[in-house]
Every structure is written in C-alpha cells, then in structure tokens.
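Worked example

This section walks through a single chain of length 250. The input is the sequence exactly as stored; nothing has been trimmed or padded.
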Amino acid sequence: MEKILIVEDEQGIRDTLQEILELAGYTVLIASDGKIGYDVIVENQPDLVLCDVNMPELGGFELLEAVNQRFKDEIIPPFLFLTAKVEVESLRYGMSLGADDYIFKPFATSDILKTVRLRLDRRNQLLDQRSASKPETVIADANKLALPCNDGLELISFDKIIKCQADRAYCNFYLADKRKILVSKPMKDFEEVLTSKNFLKVHKSTIVNIKHIEKFVRGKAGYLLMSDGSSVNVSVRKKEELMHLLIGNT
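Given that input, the structure is written out below as tokens.
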C-alpha cells in the first residue's frame, strides 16, 4: 500500500486530506510542520509528499530544499504543494527546486486524487526503469545511444537528439521526432559520451546538440533557440566556449 505524507500546519486541512486519502486506500503519515516532515521522510520514505507552502518552523520550499540536499542523486518522493497563493515568482521558485505540481486551496477531492495518482504512477515508472537497467552503464556505439522505450532499449542516432535536460535523479532526452524519453539515470551519466559527439553542456541542467542550435541570443542572460522551437538558458561561463564552437561549425 502506497504511503503519502501530509505536511500541513492547519489541523482541519490535515484531517480532511487524511480522510480523502485513506478512503482511497492509501496509508497516510502526518506532520504538522516542515521539521517534523523532514524526519518522517528520512525515517519512513513515503511514496509522495503533500505539503503546504507556508508553515512555521520550516516552510514547504525549505523542506524540499533540505530533502534534495539529503538525498542528492537519489529519486525522492514527488512533492505536491498546497497553496492559496498564485504568485508567478513563488510558483517558479518551487519548480526550480523540483516541485512536481501545485494544488490550490480551496481544493476539490477529485483534484487531490487525480494529481496524487498521476504523480505516483510517474514515480513507479521511474523506479521500474531504474531496477531494469544497470545505472553504471551507458550503452553507446559510434553513431547511436541506447535509451529505454516501452519494450526495451532503442538505439537513437546522436544526430536525432536535440538536448538532454536534468530532472533530479533522472533526465529527459528531447528528440527531433518530437518525442521525449524519460531516463532513470542522472544527466551526469551521459555527459562524457554526449560531449564527445558534438554536444555541449551549456547549463548545469542542460546538454545540447550543437547541430540543433538555430540561434544564440546574446545578453546578460543569454539563451539558445533550438530546432524544435524550445529555448535553453546559457550559463555565463559557457558563453565564450559556445561562441567558439558555433563559429567553428559554420
């Protein structure tokens, strides 16, 4: 039975959420603030955390940051944040820490159950991928990289890979055929092989294929426009190296 931790300082909301989740068949753990929530996560390893943003002692964002530091490259439970605020900066900050979703107060029972199930299913998929693969090995040949698909490994041409982006302890590969392949390994496991194949790490969370860069927009916060229409931030220390490589490939 899947375990869900509720971290919420308001007892009425805690009780409501506990009732909703227990009736749906989940095992529910309770914490009245972020500090208690952190201890519960370390000791009980819940499958998902439903957490308020604003709490005394330790807020939701601070709790997620502490969990990230504690578990580093491990797959941590999905964090769903409860909030009454809709400030864009606050939402973006939470997402930058790895928030999986937001549920806005007042919430509906159907919204809680649908979002919880969606995120649990995604986590289970990642865990299945990790257990079925050898995390220390990246399979590649001269022209292709092996990535997991529904029925095994698929050999993907390096030329068809647009970018690789980190997502906690796993990463996403974006392909020229519009597919996105989620891989249950950290991006660092692929860095050596990709950078040997005309790729460049332009940000701590992104490696791009030089051949798929459409435009480099310079400025204090420079960014790349890629062949799939996406944009990628470029770190300040990578700008000079990027310009050198782009000139060399023209």
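What to look for: The radius of gyration is 20 Å.
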